[in-house]
Design brief:
Layout: H1 2-7, H2 25-38, E1 44-48, H3 53-64, E2 70-74, H4 82-93
Parallel strand pairs: 1-2
Length: 95
Amino acid sequence: MRQAVAACRFGSVLIDTAGRSPKDEVRLQELKAFLTEAGTDEVHLVLSSVAAWRTLESTAARFAAVGATALILTKLDEATAWAMSCRCCVPAVCR
């Protein structure tokens, strides 16, 4: 993986991984190992802004341990109170 990324002639390489449950510790460790092997500079966690506040908070905290460095919130057009999403997730991921 590291060789493939290093051989790329572009400035950025985007790697989209399959979704992982924040409760599945084995899969989270596999993801962490994969990201380490890829030699990532940034890891963006993508969460739905319409999820419950506690769900967002716990999910962001679990993925911070994997190495998430940034947050992307989706479905902003569907959310009624997405400011809460930012409040709970940004500190957990963007330290």
